[in-house]
């Protein structure tokens, strides 16, 4: 397997893929390792994960450089991602004992009832490349804290980062047989589905998620899906600082080159503020620098996957054929590596691919709407249900609108953000189950109900 720098096209490393046999060997070692790992009391496991967090901080420059080299993410955004992951891990460290401790329900002389949270066993985590630290720690940290063994199969576009994570976890004190990285792409992913793991936790596209869910169903083990989105954002007519809203929402659409599961993917703007919003939006996007992700000050780096260039070109073509106006960008940049111009389309409608298919790139469609009712209808017109956002001066108005949108997260005057204390959960084709929050801490456990008569 060749690891290619997406900004230069240069091969930075060659690795050997795992085979069915080597994955099974890793699984067997994990079975043994998990039995040792669970013997370490929870407070000790918490300390070990806390040490891992310190190591992330200590090594941030080296880790960010590796992340940038394999994903094309601007260096500063790599540092931001690692710092974001550190904040999440800290929340988990601070809350693990609270959410994983035994819970007494009844404790009398005649009846004792309690709930205990036991680890699932050895779980499989097949993951995505776009935020390997963030989506990674959402799963393997609470899984380890709960006493599970973890086979972490990162995306083929984030393997070097995964290997760094493995080294730091072991250095912090995690049993080397309690966490292992599976190396490979689709083939390795499919091989993992034939191994008797005690749970499957997937982050990736709807198409792959559906395939995995069908295969895993027969095993009757927990299976959780964090999938894609086509997240809508609505700008109402009562906003006052249009320039600030335009810049903030443009960042929500274009940060990490639009390669975020919760990136703003469709924008609806009330007709009263539409013209000024669009002008300010384009101004903001133009002000951001595109270039090599290793150059400081760059906002738009390279796209991670070369295939996405074609998807984006297809969306632009489809939109233009159906009557859209291209205000900015629209094509790939002829340069080594995967670069696409930041692209803004107006006069779009919901039948266009750019308003229905996950773009996962630096492209946005902005549509004028007449009323809140229109906006609610259009926002709901999607197969996905990850997040939705409303910008308004009125919290009541925003909450009323968001309560009618079928998504796992609602944002008022913000977008494209995830916070450790809240469940991260999709609906419809965006998946099911939750990571983060108390739900995400307990997702890697099975409850035992104790009914005891003294
Ligand atoms: P992907 O579905 O192509 O791949 C995800 C993982 O699945 C990779 O590790 C890949 O090697 C593996 N895989 C591919 N085919 C497989 C198969 N047949 N069997 C088993 N495993 C297989 O997704 P991606 O391109 O890595 O990630 C981008 C997608 O992830 C986007 O749709 C994005 O929205 C989504 N995502 C969702 C969240 C969330 O929290 N909801 C977070 C990040 C990314």
Characterise this structure.
The protein has 454 residues and is of the alpha/beta class. The protein has two domains: 249 residues, 3-Layer(aba) Sandwich (Aldehyde Dehydrogenase, Chain A, domain 1); 182 residues, Aldehyde Dehydrogenase, Chain A, domain 2, CATH 3.40.309.10. Helices cover 42% and strands 20% of the residues. The chain has 15 helices and 20 strands. The strands form five sheets. It has a seven-stranded mixed β-sheet with strand order 12-13-14-11-10-16-17, with helices on both faces. A six-stranded mixed β-sheet has the order 7-6-5-8-9-19, sandwiched between helices. Strands 3-4-20 form a three-stranded antiparallel β-sheet, with no helix packed on it. Strand 10, helix 9 and strand 11 form a beta-alpha-beta unit. Helix 2 packs across helix 6, helix 3 crosses helix 4 and helix 3 runs antiparallel to helix 6. The longest helix has 26 residues. The chain is globular and about 70 Å long. The model has no long low-confidence stretch (mean pLDDT 98). Nicotinamide-adenine-dinucleotide binds next to helix 7 and helix 8.
